[in-house]
Specification:
Helices cover about 45% and strands about 5% of the residues. By secondary structure, it is mostly helical. The chain has a domain at about 20-75. It has a two-stranded antiparallel ribbon. Strand 1 (about 1-5) and strand 2 (about 10) form a beta hairpin. The protein is elongated.
């Protein structure tokens, strides 16, 4: 896969420098969320059957895990420095605007 720049030089992208696809990123985040919610469900079930401090640890984990799961699920893929080339804006010289012809001015 290649493209031409404004100067006409051909830019070739390496497969190893290509970012992860959006679909695989989304499926990875969904998988992490489902694993975290499964652990939360397990904590609720263990809180029913355990006694003493272990019960309260499970209750606290069951209350904290949704926040952690949402933060992890919303964490989109990170950009690598230099993965997207920086572009400087092209300066545009101001132009004079001509007044329209006035048919009534004589």
């Amino acid at each position: 896969m290649s493209r031409r720049t404004q100067q006409g030089a051909e830019v070739v992208y390496s497969v190893t420098s290509a970012p992860q696809s959006r679909q695989s990123d989304k499926s990875m985040r969904m998988r992490r969320y489902l694993i975290s919610m499964s652990i939360r469900t397990l904590c609720f079930l263990l809180a029913i059957f355990l006694t003493g401090p272990a019960r309260w640890v499970c209750v606290v984990l069951a209350c904290v895990l949704p926040y952690i799961a949402v933060v992890m699920a919303n964490a989109a893929r990170s950009r690598r420095a230099g993965s997207v080339p920086a572009m400087a804006p092209t300066p545009v010289a101001p132009r004079a605007i001509a007044a329209p012809d006035d048919p009534y001015a004589r």
